[in-house]
# Entry
Amino acid sequence: MCRSLGQATPCMTAFAAGKAAAYKMFEVIKRTPQIDTSDLIKGKMLDNLRGEIKLENIDFAYPARLDVPIFSNFNLTISAGTTVALVGESGSGKSTVVSLIQRFYDPTGGAVLVDGIDIKTLQLKWLRQQIGLVSQEPVLFSTSIRDNIAYGKDGATDAEIQAAAVRANAANFINRMPEVRSQTYRIWFSSFSSCNWKQKEFQNCRSTLTVGKWCLQDVCRLMRQK
# Structure
């Protein structure tokens, strides 16, 4: 008995670390999110969406770092039908604006408005269906080209997927692959996994497939050639 306990002693540190990690994990599981993504019915859907976005007197800090304010009384208006670029150094809040528009977070003060209506009152699924997104890091899956693009719209047809590739200027390099012609974009995606710009092109395809009012592109850097 004593020998067994002695052999277990070196493992006690690992047991304590595991217990502490499990406590944090269960705290996350039990946490009730402020934004209920499972509620697909609650909220309004606008019949005549013009597309104006307004961030009005926004105060915001990320929940994990409430002592580090990102915005204080921040205001931004994006008129319907316009193209707007937010330019600034890393950490200035460009990606945060994108996250607030998608309602991944709610501001601690002020409001995000769509056509003058607070997005907190809108149906979350409907709101996000209006947005095509190209994020800084491409989010792609180990499946076919077709399936990766099809995530932009439920029930997308082959014709819609190919049309999205044309709009995103990605059709040329896809169609140069001989197996694509016979399999309608059903070839495996892994051959592009190491090429970042091609991954971005697939995200562009997905965003153009989304039947929405806005396209948000969160670009981390632009390269200027001499």
Q: What stands out?
A: The chain has nine helices and six strands.
